[in-house]
Design a protein that fits this description.
By secondary structure, the chain is α+β, with helices and mostly antiparallel strands. Helix content is about 40%, strand content about 20%. It has 4 helices and 4 strands. It has a 4-stranded mixed beta sheet, with helices on both faces. Strand 3, helix 2 and strand 4 form a beta-alpha-beta unit. The longest helix has 18 residues. The protein starts with 13 loop residues before the first helix and ends in an 11-residue tail after the last helix. About 20% of the residues are buried.
Length: about 130
Amino acid sequence: MRAGLPREARIRRAGDFAAMRNASGRLGGRCFSVRYRSNGLDHARLGLAISKRVSKRAVERNRIKRLLRESFRKIRHQLPAVDMLVMAREQAASLPGPELLAEIDLLWKKLLSQQSRLTLKPDDAAGTIAR
């Protein structure tokens, strides 16, 4: 059995990425920005956007992606059923791995604290005012 991130735990379609950029909640830190929205599934999914603006060197961008995927893999069963798009900032390329992991763990904790708000109000919920 592979220990990696399973296919169903990843956001793969361009439409899903576009939906994340348009209508979703936001969390931010020094190195990462996270967009999230309820996905209607029974598990969390992760999407990564690490641009060349973060680093021109592919090896540095891939290191950041590996760290993010591994951190998500460890905590994904505790997260609410949301799609998350994690975008790295330029500062992420210059930091060592343990500092990046501490930063992303802080963002996971922030997302868990938002969990009650996410489960109470799905995206397609009708409001109390009739229009």
